[in-house]
Write a structure and sequence with these properties.
about 220 residues, 3-stranded antiparallel beta sheet, about 60% helix
Amino acid sequence: MAKLCAICKKGFGLLSMKVKIADNQFMCADCNLLAMGGDFYIATNGKSYRDLVARFGTRETWTIDVCKIAIEETRQYERELVELVTKEHRNKCNVCGHVYCYNQSDIAANNALKTNAKLNNTISVFTAFSDLTTAAVSSGNADNAQSRIVDFNKCPKCNSSNIRAFTDEEWEKEKTSISTQTTNNTIVSSADELKKYKELLDSGVISQDEFDAKKKQLLGL
């Protein structure tokens, strides 16, 4: 009996699951799940594995190379899924100039709020004449969920729908512009602060040493 997984070369424990493949080889449970499609296999009730069977035959006939191909396809799918979930949608309002971002997780949270609002509204309607307390609570829950739903097609600042999506190049320019503006604001703020301490020094409220110490702090010296 094989002591190592033919794919990842990890050792089998006494109770480890071994999945037989071609050439009297075995792979471990982790590699087997990856080869069959990983989370995609679970989420689609085995669709990824059925697609692989159509291409390569049943798992028992898969060679080590076929298993590695299947595993790499799963990992590529997982990388694309992570990219999809974390990819930011970046918009700018053409009316007020506000920039806002959101991703797939924000959209999913929004959809969950819509479902919650709809469900609680339904409960409120059906219990309106039989259970006033439940109806009131459900109505309140629905209103709460509804108030937190975001319309990503409108500017969150001025509510205008006159928005446009940033290209990656435009976004990099915008970030540079924001960073420069922030730096300039910090410089102006430090200058104003220094002016106030100079007035305190001139009026004798603080000593020269205290002023010098504050000056170094504000100027980052």
